[in-house]
Amino acid sequence: MTELLIIWSVLISQIMIGLAMICALYRVAKGPRAQDRILGLDTVYITGMLLLLTFGIRTANVLYFEAALTIAMLGFVSTIAFAKFLMRGEVIE
User: Fold this and answer.
1) Is residue 50 in a domain?
2) With bands split at pLDDT 50, 70 and 90, how would you rate the model's confidence at 88?
3) What is the pLDDT of residues 29-39, one digit of tens each?
4) pTM (2 decimals)?
5) What's the total number of domains in the chain?
């Protein structure tokens, strides 16, 4: 009973995270300003990371967790670079 409950709850969470990713992709595509698009892109990489984590839980494969960690690190750095570019017009000083 508990294993079936975990499988269904992970499946439902994957569907909800997928819907959140679709909403964030809409914000990236139709954002009225560049700041909205950067926040949407930030949300896309976070939801992608969460999808990888739920796939890792579902399949019990460590590779998904390592990929999620890599996406988290690269996403953080890219968000900082985009924000710095919007503020100053250049990334490297």
Assistant:
1) yes
2) confident
3) 998 998 899 99
4) 0.84
5) 1
